[in-house]
Amino acid sequence: MLLDSSNEQVRIPNVIALVGLPARGKTYISHKLCRYLNWIGIKTKAFNVGEYRRKACNLEEEGEYEFFSPYNAKGQKIRDECARLAIEDLGRYLDNKEGEVAILDATNTTRQRRRLLVDYCRQKHHDPAFRVFFIESICDDPEIINSNISEVKINSPDYKGIMTEEQAKEDFLKRIENYKLQYEPLDEESDEDHSFIKVINAGKSFFVHNVNGHVQSRVVYFLMNIHLLPRSIYLTRHGESEYNRIGRLGGDSPLSENGLQYAQKLRGYFEEEELHDLRIWSSQKIRAAQTASTMRDLAAHVEYWKVLDEIDAGICEGLTYEDFEARYPKQFAERDKDKYHYRYPSGESYEDLVARLEPVIMELERQSNVLVVSHQAVLRCILAYFTNKNRDDLPYLKVPLHTVIKLTPKAYSCEVEMFKFDIEAVNTYREKPGTVPKENDNVANGTTQSVDVKLPLLLTQVLGRTMSEWVPTVPAVLRESKETVFEWRIPGEQVEFQDNRICYITNSLRVPGTVFLTNYRLRFEDDEDEYEGRRGFIFNIPLGCIAKVEKVGHSKTGNSEMYGLLIGCKDMRDVRFGCNPDIHSRRPLYEALLRLSFPSSKTEILNQFCGVYKKHFDRNSYEIDGWKLYDPRTEFKRMGIPNDQWVISNINSNYDLSETYPLAVAVPVAAEKKGIEFLIRVADFRSRQRIPVLCWHHPQSQAAITRSSQPLSGMTNRKSADDEDYLEMIMSANAECYSLSIYDARPLVNARLNRAKGGGYEEGYDQCGLKFLNIHNIHVVRDSLRKLRDVLFPKVDERNYFKLLDDSKWFHHLQSILEGSMEIVRDVELNKQSVLIHCSDGWDRTAQLSCLSMIQLDPYYRTIEGFAVLIEKEWCSFGHKFAQRYGHWEDKAGDAERSPIFVQFIDCVYQLLVQFEPFFEFTHELLIFILEELYSCRFGTFLYNSEKQRILENRCPKTTVSIWTYVLMNRKLFSNPGYHGLPLNERKVLYVNPSISMMKLFRDWHARYNPFIVSPQSAAMKLRNYDRSCGQYTLKEELMKEIE
Questions:
Q1: What's the domain count of the chain?
Q2: Are 730 and 706 in contact (CB under 8 A)?
């Protein structure tokens, strides 16, 4: 039977034991970890052995540091007894179900002491046995050690008020030397059966070994996001808003006059603080953004996060408390009864807010000095985390307007300082009610009219069954005799979790069924009996495709709301499941989804399905290894490189020049002759050291397509003679080139804005022509695809469809890219000119333009193998940030760096297919397959952000399967039966028509999950027509052979 580790915090108690010498931050880690686990709902208690020792003896009497000598038998006996008492106390704590996690804060420096703990936790009378995880804090940085001693240890109960600071420091250093005499660090071989993490030099590096289960994964995730260095966190609400003045909830009103004054005063406060590394995070609400904007020039970074927006008051947004009580008296009373769990109708609860803010807490833990400009409810949650307040107190913490709260994390606590500004502001604080008002008091008095809030159907109504029919979630049981139940699994796939009391919910459907979670996907099957071996309703979501998992409703609201999960997918799907509130069946599914979809450590990432799939992939079943399909030197040779003008350079061997460039790059021979120092100077003048290099060479003329990043000219239009000489060398490598055409993908306005950040463009370069292509950035593209999604889901607005499609601007963005590629093709093919393409960093829009140009110019890239080589070359090897753009294994759905740039490119290829279908060996089915696997993370091709990360650091060719291996094994699935192949010595150039009137919505991708647009019947018809055309094409070939 497989253990359901997603629900382990209820079933398996966990003991977390600190290991390490004194002054290594163990108590700091213990306090923060205890606080974090309690904050996310895992009840935790820390047991500090030092406190037991202080109760047992007086160090003044025992002789300070000599007490800790391994040769002091009496001291050793007392310390062993204190450790035993602490271990027994934590055992009773867990056995009595008082909590789920116990932290043993001690040195635990010897293997004997650690073995004592492990043996105790495995004793039979513990039911179940405790799971043990060690955290070893290692530090050899004298600065950090001295800082810990000065700030923490001399103020500990052992010394405070007993010794002077110098005496305390001297004594403590001697104590450390005593511990060093018997210190045995954790070791991968000697402690092979232990689970542990080593935190090295306050989080500069980590070593993780044998992590087991959900709690340990969360602990590792947390530890890898904190540091022990001194810093402060500043919290402030926005200045007083117009809604504050009149007492209204939520909204998005601007600052009042008083609020504007506060924003200026706040700027003055931080000018005096002189924090050179200050980061400012603000909510996206107008009042917060106005407050933060006054300090933009004082901060290293200013970011506006939607996750910091105020709690969503739902239908109560804009009401005063008097309006709220008058219109919804029952809701108002419910809020007063349990403010933490109360959820505004169509809005949020404080519990939802805590879940929403967990990524913010993680970011705060890894930052230095940060100012958070947000709202009352949000700051209450953050303040409760850092001050260890419970859930009952959290909604009533005081966070007044026009006040800065300064938090300084310490080892044993968090120092809180409040700075009240002398600027008038309303008081928005409401005291915790002393008594709960009766539901009908107001109605009985005749002062208001009761208005019931309409809420969703009950789960029992949806499924047509009573709650007594619900049974607890059952973990998946895999027995050999029942293996056929899971015939749908692919090699290496294992069922990790299942629940057969789930309801899939859409606007028009309520489908009861079973959810399976494997190490690869989420699968839903309805409860209908099989018909001819098929079920009626089945769908799959690869785990890599899951962008976010949100809880909907709450069990404590009983029958008033729907209770379940909302799963947002990266491929436009939103999937909602209903769960049973009576037995809290949502939590196991939620925890399992988080655990499987968002690994919390590098160790877990390495154990993702892509690695398992490789181990089960039949090596004998394929002739070509997709990882070997693209070899840069072979591809350069196909283009006639090296030659008299171009050479393959070793300038980036070991990725020394640019970490985001491939190992092998081609540069002009003249540049190579000038030496490596010259090329380094050129690279230093380009963003990310992405020097202009060759992408494609014309087979007849000497015209070349090159790519790079923007020059770093800055606001002063700084020049680089080396960069200008290098571009002249590119031009001179083409005897027919009279001017190097530089295509800057950006709008001119954006390029000018980049100058303010140190970037720029080639203004005033001799013998260079500069053209801006007006292709918008990642943020605009992301918003455009989101609007396109709203056009297609959940239903199409038939009357306004074309208007809404145009408003999304999706076709307009495709048009600008296709227009740019067409200009490049004309320049290279007809004018025989060499070109340079770049955007900002040269890994998004640059790749789109270079690829689309080469597809039109070179028939090889229109074959299946050639298209694979093109993607490997221009996207994978040149550092398109696949992991960041598509959020592989990250629970950060709102990450501003995510953007569907590669999806946009594939859509452009689809438009070429629409216009020139006979000239492509592959069909749009290959494009769909590539996009599906881009999200699924089954193959290693699209993992990580660069060739260096993929090939060198994570060894993907050894540990994963290439997508091209699968494509070439199954090429018939993607082949175009009407393909007009050309002899090798012939070349057909395509000239795309970029008019929007020629474009066609890529429905089979964008709308494939809308059954009203792409129905199963239409898909079946397409398949039948494809089979028929394949048959006709084969017959034609046979007849031609007979005639010959």
A1: 5
A2: yes
